[in-house]
């Protein structure tokens, strides 16, 4: 259960409050504020605060680039120009603060994006809840035979059942020992900062994560990609839905130029030019390695 009844009631109370303001607001984001969007079995993402909108991006761009933007007839066109030409600074004028509940092993992937401000729930001061991520059966897969950091075929039958049982029993046993070490009944009890070391990587943690839109787009480009690990990808996909309501023009440009676009090397671009001229181009005469050629064929749909 992502939220307790008390937490749900607190969010309802927050959403019932309204305050007059002179600052720019985004109608789509105002509807999202404080709402917890469920992710995985016990996780969620919710917006705590935000700054800016599509217009704020354009305002900053026109200050930064002056007369160079006068040929752009509208804000959406300007935003697409900025995205297309990798002018990232104006997107940094928008910020978002998220409250995220996620498994520790997902958090360790997430924290590699070092361009945000993070404050995590501290197990030195507080006791973690007995909540663990247990994959759904359709998320249990064998190691990929072609990708050292990916998944292959689904586990089935007795093997899948055995793996799920081990995940559940190991997590519960570790938490039982965690509670036993913390207990002060008939003993001193181990310090929380030490007892936490026994907990598994699938236990849930929480943090506040504040990031500007430019760096958020970089996070989403990598983590919402089909090749990203499923458990972090579903968080990224949820954030994509939120961002689409917050800055619709910027997100549309991001989808088009970053998520839906590709970067080609000079060699790959030369191969395309040769193909357009009618030349037969193969891996052997392309100047690419086998790996590069395979990826190039994937881009072309070959």
Automatic annotation (TrEMBL):
Matches recorded under Pfam families: Thy1 (PF02511)
EC number(s) recorded for this UniProt protein: 2.1.1.148
Cofactor list: FAD
Bias (Low complexity): 12-25
Superkingdom per UniProt: Bacteria
Listed pathway(s): Pyrimidine metabolism; dTTP biosynthesis
Binding positions (dUMP): 109-112, 120-124, 196, 223
Active site: 223 (involved in ionization of n3 of dump, leading to its activation)
Cofactor descriptive note: Binds 4 FAD per tetramer. Each FAD binding site is formed by three monomers.
Summary of subunit composition and partner proteins: Homotetramer.
Role, per record: Catalyzes the reductive methylation of 2'-deoxyuridine-5'-monophosphate (dUMP) to 2'-deoxythymidine-5'-monophosphate (dTMP) while utilizing 5,10-methylenetetrahydrofolate (mTHF) as the methyl donor, and NADPH and FADH(2) as the reductant.
Family indicated by similarity: Belongs to the thymidylate synthase ThyX family.
Record protein name field: Flavin-dependent thymidylate synthase
Organism: Rhodovulum adriaticum (Rhodopseudomonas adriatica)
């Amino acid at each position: 259960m992502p939220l307790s009844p008390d937490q749900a009631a607190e969010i309802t109370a927050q959403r019932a409050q309204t305050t007059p303001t002179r600052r720019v607001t985004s109608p789509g984001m105002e509807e999202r504020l404080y709402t917890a969007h469920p992710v995985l079995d016990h996780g969620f993402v919710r917006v705590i605060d935000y700054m800016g909108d599509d217009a704020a991006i354009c305002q900053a761009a026109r200050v930064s680039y002056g007369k160079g933007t006068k040929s752009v007839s509208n804000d959406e066109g300007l935003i697409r120009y900025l995205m297309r030409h990798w002018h990232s600074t104006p997107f940094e004028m928008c910020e978002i603060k998220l409250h995220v509940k996620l498994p520790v092993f997902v958090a360790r992937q997430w924290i590699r994006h070092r361009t945000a401000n993070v404050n995590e729930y501290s197990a030195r001061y507080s006791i973690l809840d007995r909540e663990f991520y247990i994959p759904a059966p359709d998320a249990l897969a064998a190691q990929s035979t072609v990708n050292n950091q990916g998944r292959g075929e689904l586990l089935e039958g007795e093997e899948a059942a055995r793996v799920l049982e081990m995940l559940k029993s190991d997590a519960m046993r570790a938490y039982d020992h965690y509670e036993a070490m913390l207990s002060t009944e008939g003993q001193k009890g181990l310090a929380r900062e030490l007892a936490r070391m026994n907990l598994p990587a699938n236990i849930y943690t929480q943090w506040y994560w504040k990031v500007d839109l430019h760096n958020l787009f970089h996070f989403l480009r990598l983590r919402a990609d089909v090749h990203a690990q499923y458990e972090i990808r579903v968080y990224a996909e949820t954030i994509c839905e939120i961002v689409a309501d917050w800055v619709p023009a910027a997100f549309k440009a991001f989808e088009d130029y970053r998520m839906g676009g590709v970067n080609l090397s000079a060699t790959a671009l030369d191969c395309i030019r040769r193909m357009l001229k009618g030349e037969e181009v193969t891996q052997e005469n392309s100047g690419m390695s086998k790996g590069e050629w395979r990826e190039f064929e994937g881009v072309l749909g070959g």
